[in-house]
Amino acid sequence: MSSTRLPVVTRASAAAEIEAAYRWYERERQGLGEEFLQAVTDLAASIAEYPERFPVIHRDIRRALLKRFPYGIFYRLKANQVIVVACFIPRGIPKNGNRGTNADVLRDSLAGTSNVPVSPSPRTEEVVWTTTPPPATPNYPTTFVATIEPRC
Can you give the CATH number for the domain in which 47 is found? Predict the structure, then answer.
């Protein structure tokens, strides 16, 4: 495994799924959405550092599970980038509605037809999350930048 950090590109539909989960957790308890985003940020940094660490679950799509929250980040390795294609609860029905089977959700996310509302954007956007490094972890990134593209 390489310790070279790959850039992370998040598809718009995956970003919308992350935002929908964030909003749901914030409605449940103020600050919980921020904790969810921190968990996503930490996992995305881990994926960027060691992208082949997580298992392939369907064709070339890998899944990394959040530890505290029941979500998975689904991604591809393509052209020396990590392409995040989806973020959803891998088993069961998400609290934000009936999304169908895992295969249906993954297919919809890949096709860009996820039922999570997404604002179409013809341009690439960058979202920056600021993180707090865990204790005694030198060289831990304090800022994570996700590049959001409409389609990959």
Answer: 3.30.2310.20
Number of domains in the chain: 1
Residue 16 makes CB contacts below 8 A (sequence gap 6+) with 114, 116, 117, 118
Which pLDDT tens digit goes with each residue over 122-135? 344 444 444 445 55
Domain that holds residue 75: 8-149
For 141, the token pair is 């990134």
The predicted model scores a pTM of 0.65
Q: Which residue has the tokens 């060691």?
A: 50
Confidence class of residue 39 from pLDDT cuts 50, 70 and 90? very high
Is residue 2 in some structural domain? no
